[in-house]
């Protein structure tokens, strides 16, 4: 049996590797001219442990993220055959409660503490759980003096140190690409726009267009991991969800900071339309901030093919507005010079989530990120990772489902 994986983003690549490691031949289809050229490389690489989801007090989102985060390091260490300590990760994140937060400081701290307890319950207690971090160590709540050394204390009403890290997506995706190209069980169909998947005999026909014209290839099973292209292909199989969804175009900014202690700390600002800084060891700072970095919304089945790399004045406007908003209360961002800001790079991608309204609506379904994962119709599997964090977890789950489906077909 050969399996088609639609979408060569991080989710599709993880699924392909997971299948190949189980001895299954895979063909990856992507319309780009190389793997992982869209959302997979546009994100800040945060491996979410669940601390960000205070708007879901049921803790279902936190539980889902923690499960994904704890599977992430072991998965990439296994497929890339390197210890977790060999990957480039950021300084662990502070969580800062903004004075305009949708939850006051006491509520936010209580949520973080409960989430931390939950993570401790899911972890094995080893440094191999999550990039060398000690997940059993209690969270540290900063005192006023420490807050005032890094933030405007009138804006940051509480600051909590967490063990949550980000992984440098560019170096991770570069390694993943090389690993896939070297795998004899994986074939690539780049420059292939997938349009539909049809039942064909005892399997499926993947149809679409490539630079030479129309193509049609036959497979035993198909996995749809197309992210913003996923719903369009599902819809043609009668699988369009009945609930509302939203695609948001979100940008992030990479700036080379002064480095060392002069760089701002990694910090996630909660809860609501705020953003974060990520501080990498080579001095690179990643910034993203609402509303400047979220520039378009679409509830269409197929969102517009948004420009993910705004250049010239459009890019510079996003950088200036973001740095100036964030520097109002993250003090070390004031160390960035005009030259630093001028060399900043802006890149982004679409984010798919359930709900009709954006993050500024505390009641939006967008805050509940646990209704994600794999939906199967026989040997056709559609995967919504929800977050980068979840891709390795769903990759192994999807590979197991493909194997189970193949066993069922063999015995029926
Ligand atoms: C700015 C930003 C920051 C983010 N930060 C984080 C974070 O810190 N932590 C986190 O966990 N998540 C984060 N996310 C979300 C995360 O990046 C995504 O959930 C995840 O990358 C999506 O999966 P993917 O990598 O497979 O998507 P993609 O990389 O977009 O892969 C989908 C692939 O399918 C291809 N494709 C689409 N349609 C078709 C078609 N019809 N035919 C052929 N090919 C097609 C595309 O070319 C693409 O390569 C962020 C997202 C953004 C935009």
Verbal overview:
The protein is of the alpha/beta class and 412 residues long. The chain has nine helices and 18 strands. The protein has two domains: 2-40 and 172-243 and 372-411, FAD/NAD(P)-binding domain; 89-168 and 244-367, 2-Layer Sandwich (D-Amino Acid Oxidase, Chain A, domain 2), CATH 3.30.9. A hairpin with a 4-residue loop joins strand 12 (267-270) and strand 13 (275-279). The two termini are 16 Å apart. Flavin-adenine dinucleotide binds at residues 7-12, 29-32, 36-40, 42-46, 48, 193-194, 225-229, 250-252, 348-349, 351, 385, 387-389. The site of flavin-adenine dinucleotide has 38 residues, from helix 1, strand 2, strand 7, strand 11 and strand 16.
CATH architecture of the largest domain: 2-Layer Sandwich
> What fold name goes in the CATH topology slot of the largest domain?
D-Amino Acid Oxidase, Chain A, domain 2
Number of domains as seen in the coordinates: 2
Q: Report the end-to-end length measured between terminal Cα atoms.
A: 16 Å
| Low-pLDDT segments | none
Number of helices: 9
User: Could you spell the SSE succession in H and E letters?
Assistant: EHEHEHEHEHEEEEEHEEEEEHHEEEH
Describe the structure concisely.
This protein has 412 residues and is of the alpha/beta class. It is built from 9 helices and 18 strands. The site of flavin-adenine dinucleotide has 38 residues, from helix 1, strand 2, strand 7, strand 11 and strand 16.
Can you give keywords for this protein?
412 residues; alpha/beta; FAD/NAD(P)-binding domain; D-Amino Acid Oxidase, Chain A, domain 2; 2 domains; 6-stranded mixed β-sheet; 9 helices; binds flavin-adenine dinucleotide
């Amino acid at each position: 049996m050969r399996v088609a994986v639609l979408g060569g983003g991080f989710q599709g690549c993880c699924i392909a590797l997971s299948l190949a490691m189980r001895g299954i031949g895979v063909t990856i289809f992507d319309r780009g001219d190389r793997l992982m050229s869209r959302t997979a490389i546009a994100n800040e690489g945060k491996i979410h442990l669940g601390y960000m989801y205070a708007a879901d007090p049921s803790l279902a989102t936190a539980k889902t993220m923690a499960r994904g985060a704890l599977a992430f390091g072991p998965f990439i260490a296994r497929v890339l055959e390197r210890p977790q300590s060999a990957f480039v990760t950021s300084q662990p994140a502070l969580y800062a409660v903004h004075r305009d937060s949708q939850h006051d400081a006491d509520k936010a701290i209580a949520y973080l503490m409960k989430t931390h307890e939950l993570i401790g319950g899911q972890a094995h207690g080893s440094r191999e759980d999550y990039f060398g971090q000690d997940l059993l160590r209690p969270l540290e709540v900063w005192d006023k003096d420490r807050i005032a050394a890094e933030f405007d204390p009138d804006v940051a009403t509480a600051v909590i140190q967490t063990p949550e890290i980000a992984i440098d997506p560019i170096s991770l995706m570069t390694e993943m690409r090389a690993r896939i190209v070297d795998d004899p069980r994986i074939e690539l169909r780049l420059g292939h726009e997938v349009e539909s998947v049809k039942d064909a005999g005892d399997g499926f026909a993947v149809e679409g267009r490539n630079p030479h014209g129309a193509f049609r290839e036959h497979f035993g099973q198909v996995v749809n991991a197309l992210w913003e292209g996923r719903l369009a292909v599902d819809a043609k199989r009668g699988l369009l969800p009945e609930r509302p969804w939203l695609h948001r175009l979100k940008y992030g900014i990479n700036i080379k900071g002064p480095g060392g202690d002069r760089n701002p700390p990694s910090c996630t600002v909660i809860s609501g339309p705020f953003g974060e800084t990520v501080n990498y060891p080579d001095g690179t700072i990643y910034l993203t901030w609402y509303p400047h970095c979220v520039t378009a919304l679409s509830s269409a089945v197929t969102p517009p093919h948004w420009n993910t790399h705004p250049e010239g004045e459009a890019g510079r406007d996003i950088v200036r507005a973001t740095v100036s908003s964030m520097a109002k209360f993250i003090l070390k961002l004031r160390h960035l010079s005009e030259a630093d800001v001028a060399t900043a790079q802006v890149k982004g991608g679409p984010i798919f989530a359930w709900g009709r309204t954006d993050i500024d609506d505390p009641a939006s379904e967008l805050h509940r990120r646990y209704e994600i994962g794999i939906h199967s119709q026989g040997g056709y599997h559609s995967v919504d990772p929800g977050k980068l964090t979840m891709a390795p977890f769903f990759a192994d789950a999807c590979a197991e489902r493909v194997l189970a489906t193949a066993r069922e077909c063999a015995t029926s």
